[in-house]
Every structure is written in structure tokens, then in C-alpha cells.
Design a protein that fits this description.
mainly alpha, 3 helices
């Protein structure tokens, strides 16, 4: 469970910073996942909000993993 939390937090952190600073890279990823996950208008309008959400999720997951590591 610790490993899953750690991996999720790293993925959320990377996604958050990609949304905030490299929206061109997100647009490249979007071309592959357009039908299933993303919408162009949504990315352009809400990229900062989505980026902040991913960063917050990664901080929470890192905190949970760190607490579990300190308890052991």
C-alpha cells in the first residue's frame, strides 16, 4: 500500500507541474488520449486549476506515505 501511495503521489506531482508549466506537452499527450480523458477546451480553460489539484493530491499522498514510513 505504501508503494502505491508513493507512486500515485509522484505521478500527481509530475502531472501537476506539467499542467502548470508545460501545457504544450499536455497537448501532445492529449492527442493520444483525446477520446477517453481530455477535451481541448477543458485543458485550455482549466489547466491551472487542474495543475493545482494534481499538486495538492501529490502533497497529500506524499504526506500519507511519509507518515506511514515514520510509523514503521
Amino acid at each position: 500500500m505504501y508503494t502505491i501511495k508513493l507512486i500515485c503521489s509522484i505521478i500527481f506531482l509530475v502531472l501537476g507541474f506539467l499542467y502548470l508549466y508545460r501545457s504544450d506537452f499536455i497537448m501532445k499527450i492529449n492527442s493520444f488520449a483525446r477520446r477517453f480523458i481530455f477535451n481541448d477546451a477543458y485543458i485550455l480553460l482549466y489547466r491551472k486549476k487542474i495543475g493545482v489539484i494534481f499538486v495538492i493530491l501529490s502533497i497529500i499522498a506524499l504526506y500519507m506515505a511519509g507518515i506511514q514510513l515514520l510509523i514503521k
